[in-house]
Amino acid sequence: MFDSLRWMRVKHDSAPGSLIYAGEGRDFTPFIEVCAYSRDGLDERRLDLGEPVVLAPDRVNLVVVVGIHDVETIRRVGADLGFPALALEDVMNAGQRAKFAWADDETAFIVLKNLTEADGGLVSEQVSLFWRDNLVAVFLEREDDLLDGVLARIRKGKGRLRTEGGAYLMCAILDVLVDCNMAALTRFGELAEGLEARLEGRTTDELLGQLYTLKREVILLRNQLVPMREIFKALLGEDADLPEPVLPFLRDAAGHHEQAVDAATSLHDILKSMIDYQVSLISMRTNRAMQFLTVIATIFIPLTFIAGVYGMNFEHMPELSWRYGYYYSLAIMGGVAGGMLVYFLRKRFL
Q1: What's the distance, CA 125 to chain centroid?
Q2: Are 274 and 197 in contact (CB under 8 A)?
Q3: pTM across the whole model
């Protein structure tokens, strides 16, 4: 939740552009994969350790760097591809807010979040992306299946990926991220429905705790999604100068993302209403119990008074020496209690 604050602590007293990793500890060896393709050919390979990144000038180049925790790898890739140090600094900051900026006059720099659900909690992993005419470079925190679908379409050679340029590849990756985030949101919605069904039976402290935790995760999810609006707004602006054939696909991805933001906001409101409703139910049940106890206490007040009167043991109290005095006092108490009970029932106090 406070990854950005942790980054500020790690970055303390460091010069701007310093390459310092701030994120979850990773112990694997980073690697780089390069996929260069055109309409007629495809060259895909994993680079050897220390091998420079060389781009094919007549093809679209997809460079995937897995592992942002190694300073030397990030510095070397940045030098090979001409990325500025300030952008690489953000690449290594796993708590960086989603953003869009121009790394230089020709290269766009985008920071996004890949959001997934695991054991009822939100898992947020940073995806940094550089894009220029014939290059898309993606930096991932760890190896996963995020780009498997895009790579499969490139290998099959079907569809637009092999015929369009780097702008369409960048748009395809954004669309994959939007779909992944929507899947995470759908999963949280299913968890909310399950909790709601369980809460209909009986409210417990455990269920209320789970409801609060789920609401907290949805808030984090929404806070990660909202800044990504600015990315799509910037890409659809005139300054981005994207090819006209790509714009409809980018608008479609932007629309799906906006739908995800609206759904996250709605889910948060629903969870908040569920918590308020459960708290209200608990208050109502408490009030009913207190009302019942108050009625019982009110009925026993005059009975206690009558018992107190006849318990004073004065010498000249006729009922004390009367043969039927005991039954007489019980009858009075029963009549008073019955009358009050009927009165409370008519007033719907019970």
Answers
A1: 12
A2: no
A3: 0.80
